[in-house]
């Protein structure tokens, strides 16, 4: 894509690893390495699998190099596990203010069609999963949902009793102002 994205934010790590590893042997066309790296370095990755795929490319190493790393040399820069984490402070210690999120669920594909909306209050910086949880707590009959743990993190499998289906090729798509979210 013109902005440096290769596929989506989840495929970027593998794409960068592949392009870097093969750039000397296979180059069907020039690619802007710096632009692609700026996309991944600007993104706030939260999923362990995505981090694991993008990290080798960001540090210019492969997993084969891991055996030769001197972890003792980086001990001073490791985070202090004894520092308490506050649920109301952001990543830089800035207080997180409550925000109101307008949340809607719509089904126009299968069974009985529906459209429900609500507004919930969460702390700024909250995840989409937190918005779903608060909506379900406030109105469980309408905003119920089910999840499944995957190596990519929590995956929403059902909303309002309507499950995603690989057989029917249906899934829940999450949008913000009409645009698909890069990361749920």
From TrEMBL:
Indicate where this protein resides in the cell: Secreted
Where do the annotations place cyanocob(III)alamin binding? 8, 53, 155-156, 181
Its cellular-component GO annotations read:
extracellular space
The UniProt record lists the Transcobalamin-like C-terminal domain at 125-179
Biological processes per GO annotation: cobalamin transport; cobalt ion transport
- Its recorded name reads IF factor
Looking up InterPro entries in the UniProt record yields: Cbl-bd_prot, Cobalamin_Transport, Transcobalamin-like_C
Judging by the UniProt lineage, the source's domain of life is Eukaryota
Record keywords: Secreted included? yes
What Gene3D superfamilies does the annotation carry? 1.50.10.20, 2.170.130.30
Spell out the molecular function terms from Gene Ontology. cobalamin binding
Q: Which UniProt keywords apply?
A: Cobalt, Cobalt transport, Ion transport, Secreted, Signal, Transport
């Amino acid at each position: 894509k013109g902005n440096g994205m290769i596929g989506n934010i989840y495929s970027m790590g593998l794409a960068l690893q592949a392009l870097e590893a093969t750039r000397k042997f296979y180059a069907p066309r020039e690619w802007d390495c710096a632009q692609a790296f700026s996309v991944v370095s600007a993104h706030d990755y939260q999923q362990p699998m995505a981090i694991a795929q993008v990290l080798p490319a960001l540090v210019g190493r492969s997993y084969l190099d891991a055996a030769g790393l001197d972890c003792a040399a980086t001990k001073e820069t490791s985070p202090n596990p004894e520092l308490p984490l506050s649920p109301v402070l952001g990543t830089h210690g800035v207080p997180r203010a409550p925000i109101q999120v307008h949340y809607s669920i719509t089904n126009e594909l299968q069974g009985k069609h529906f459209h429900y909306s609500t507004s919930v209050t969460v702390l700024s910086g909250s995840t989409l999963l937190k918005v779903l949880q608060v909506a379900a707590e406030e109105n469980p009959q309408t905003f119920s949902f089910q999840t499944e743990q995957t190596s990519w993190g929590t995956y929403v499998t059902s909303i309002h009793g309507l499950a995603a289906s690989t057989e029917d090729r249906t899934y829940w798509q999450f949008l913000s102002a009409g645009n698909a979210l890069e990361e749920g």
